[in-house]
Amino acid sequence: MEILMAFVIGFLFFAAIYLILSKSLLRIIIGTGLLSHGAHMLILTMGGLGSDAPPVLADGVSNSSMADPLPQALILTAIVISFGVTAFFLVLAYRAYQELKTDNIDEMRGEEHDE
Amino acid sequence: MNSPLLPIIIPFAFAILLMFAPKQLMFQRIGAMIGAILTVGASVWLLQKVATDGIQVVTFGSWPVPYGITMVSDMVSILFVLTSSIITLFAIWYSYRTIGVGREQFFYYPGILLMLVGVNGAFTTGDIFNLFVFFEVLLMASYLLSVLGGEKIQFRESIKYILVNVVSSAFFVITVAMLYSVVGTLNMADIAQKVSEVNQPGILTAIAIMLLVVFGLKAAIFPLFFWLPSSYSGPPLPVLALFGALLTKVGVYAIMRTFTLFFVGDIAFTHTLLLYLSVATIVVGCIGALAVWDVKKIIIYNIVIAVGVILYGIATYNDTGLLGSMFYVVHDMLIKAALFFLVGIIIYITGQTNLKKMGGLMKHYPSLGWLYLIAAFSLAGIPPLSGFIGKMLLVKGGFEAEQTASSIWILLSSLIVLLSVIRIFVYAFWGKEKETTPINRSVYWQLWIPTALLVALTIVYGVGADAVMPYMAKAAETLANPQIYIDAVKGGQ
Amino acid sequence: MKLNNVIMRTMTQMVFFIIFLFSIHIFLAGHFAPGGGFVGGLLMSCAIVLLLITFDLKTVQNLLPINYMVLTASGLALALLTACISAFAGEAFFTHYFDYFTLPLLGKTELHTAMLFDTGVYLVVVGVTMIIIQSIGGDE
Fold first, then answer.
1. Rounded to a whole number, what is the distance in Å from the CA of C15 to chain B's nearest CA?
2. Could you tell me which residue, B439 or C131, shows the higher pLDDT?
3. pLDDT digits (tens, 9 = 90+) for A52-92
4. CB distance B403 to B316 below 8 Å
């Protein structure tokens, strides 16, 4: 299972980096979304896979069979944060598109004021 | 028992209050000012409490220590918190006349206060994932502040700024995941103890370098400073002063904390790397500061130099070096904010940022010229101003660590810093007078007063170094002996 | 954008309330079962978005005259105050209190301060999501 997860995470990172390196702003934003998904999967894997009972000490659940609740709490927090940042980024990209009339990151170079 | 939280909760409560009536100009201004004053007051009170009662610890929700989220106020963090709060207070004051009503009515002050929440939280937290959360709080607020106003350059530069920070945040999450899988805890004191128990194997050194990349991006160390000069040239000046004084220092603080608390098992590798990086950071900062003609960018490159100088003290990792770092970082935050304010006044008078098109300001604005000269000398470290003591301790620490060549380089870099800021003085204040559009004198004085007070504060900080030294010594002691921090967190409660 | 689609409009008027009630259910289920303020808030904003798609922005503004910025601020204030309750009581910030009450109709019920905090989260999520959607969808 860990091997499979490693491949999934690796693929997510690969796709994210490919998208972030492209020129279109929208693709870049999708890339950052994929990047954070990859990171969340990594937390899940790093917290240890295999124990599947919910992390509540009920009947028939022992310390060893219950899942680690901490990675889940971390992922939830990270998801909420990346939701907020992505939403902000989208709004900004839209406004920038209206203002600068382009979504091509190549055309957003700063002009050099210095001689 | 909840005292460490006060400098975080007060600005947060005021930010919420201000969100209810964004269009009420006086309400916004006065509310933000009261919030900032109360935060400074709470920080001073907390500083005294930490000085007399020792490290203050609170764990959310009354959980036992390694399980709950801990907030820790030791001397290091409270000094950072106090300095940030003071600078925010001055930035709010300075904003009244420079930022424009449009921004003031569009959540400018809540943005500043929320950024202070994030900054103070990042300085206070004792939990590595919580550090990430507070990083995001301050970054979100900084995104808002950097695009507020909606000029073309702001959009263009904010997109790059956000992209760099989103990627670095993802990297932070990845690193925290790695760290959790190796040590099985997120509480910083607990991590420090576990790392020292297992004697820092190679994997932890790798994680240390990953953390250095994350924090280095925030702190703008070599070679990760590339985003800083262009991103910081976008936002208006009070915001730039806040960013320049506070945001990079959060990264510096995080490096300071992690590389004195967790990763002290393989100093020969990690801290030598830090040493080389700090020297390289100073080199590129010096080149940048001498090469540009834009007054904003000259000061922006000086941020990079200062980050290198502060890191140098952490890299030498002895009592004198750490003491120098602590002393220098507080000095640098204050003086950078003051210099940005001064440059803001120069830009306000001349109406442009290009140094070549300025000249002869000394004739009509001598008060500004002398103030600038004092600030410039203080930045370069001319005794008895505040930069001198920090740098002297840093260099002494370098010699103690037998790093003669790099210590001499730190001294030489002071001369380059002096040259770069005096260049502004020579070109803008001396020479032939250039035509400027007439300005409102009362606005000029309203900008001059907060700036002068801030410069006066740095003078007091330098001249009264004897009074500050016990606090600094205590901070350096905490940094040098991680066990003090660990005992306070794990033994307390 | 205005879709003149009778089936869509009629269905939306019913489905909106179903989603709304479901979001309240998810929100209340939160403490012991999957759910909570964040998910509930997102569901609620989905319901409002459905209204926005079916009718136009102005009609929805008239239907639900809510200032989402004030909604967000109230949510934040509620969450902060709840977290501060324990600080006023002299315990650590965020300390959680609960007790059992006998309520009419519901019988013996467990009430938590976490619930108040979650209400704050619910309001913030609805507010923030709607601000974002309005600022993108606001101008055609």
1. 32
2. C131
3. 777 777 777 777 777 788 888 899 899 989 989 998 999 89
4. yes
Q: Return phi, psi of residue A64, to 5°.
A: -85, -25
How many Cα atoms sit within 13 Å of C67 on the Cβ side?
8
**Which of B12, B13, B61 is nearest residue C92 as measured by Cβ atoms?**
B61
Q: What are phi and psi of C103, to 5 degrees?
A: -105, 150
Kindly give, in sequence order, each residue whose CB lies less than 8 Å from that of residue A59, ignoring residues fewer than 6 positions away: none
Contact: C96, B61; criterion CB under 8 Å? yes
State which amino acid sits at residue C31.
H
Give contacts of B13 with chain C, Cβ < 8 Å. Answer: 77, 80
Measured CA to CA, the distance from residue B121 to residue B130 in angstroms comes to 9
pLDDT digits (tens, 9 = 90+) for C12-45: 889 999 999 999 999 988 777 778 888 999 999 9
Per-residue confidence band for B402, with pLDDT thresholds at 50, 70 and 90? confident
Domain count, chain C: 1
| CA B31 – CA B185 distance, rounded (Å) | 40
Query: C102 lies in a domain?
Result: yes
CA distance B44 to A24: 49
* CA-closest candidate to residue B220, choices B200, B250, B185: B250
- Residue A50, pLDDT above cutoff 80: no
**Residue recorded with tokens 């800083």:** B228
Domains of chain A are 2-51+66-106 (1.10.287)
Orientation of helix B404-429 relative to helix B267-291, angle to 10°: 20
Tell me if B263 sits within 8 A of B212, measured CB to CB.
no
Contact B58, B4 (CB under 8 A): yes
Q: ipTM value of the model? A: 0.92
* pLDDT tens readout for residues B70-85: 999 999 999 999 999 9
DSSP states of A6-56 as a string?
A: HHHHHHHHHHHHHHHTSSBHHHHHHHHHHHHHHHHHHHHHHT-SS--B-SS
- Nearest CB partner across the interface for A42, out of B156, B177, B186: B177
Does C114 reside within a domain?
A: yes
Q: CA C76, CA C72: separation in Å to the nearest integer?
A: 6
Tokens of A19: 């998208």
Q: How far apart are CA A80 and CA A50, in angstroms?
A: 25
Please check whether residue B478 is in contact with residue B484, taking contact to mean a CB–CB distance below 8 angstroms.
yes
> Looking at the domain assignment, is residue C76 inside a domain?
yes
In this prediction, residue C4 carries a pLDDT of 67
Tokens of A26: 């929208």
The secondary element (H helix, E strand) that includes residue C110 is: strand C107-112
User: Could you tell me which of B446, B425, B229, B234 has the C-alpha nearest to residue B339?
Assistant: B425
Token pair, residue C72, equals 């967000």
Give the separation between CA B83 and CA B386, rounded to whole angstroms. 14
DSSP letter string over B323-362? HHHHHHHHHHHHHHHHHHHHHHHHHHHHS--BGGG---HH
- Beta carbons of B236 and B99 less than 8 angstroms apart: yes
C-alpha distance from C132 to closest chain A C-alpha (Å): 7
Q: Which domain holds residue C22?
A: 6-137
Residue window 116-135, chain B: list those with CB within 8 Å of chain A: 129, 132-133
Contact B230, A108 (CB under 8 A): no
- Torsion sign, CA atoms C9, C11, C14, C19: negative
- At B98, which amino acid appears? T
For chain C, say whether B61 makes contact (Cβ under 8 Å): yes
In a domain, C1, yes or no: no
Minimum Cα–Cα distance from B15: chain C residue: C73
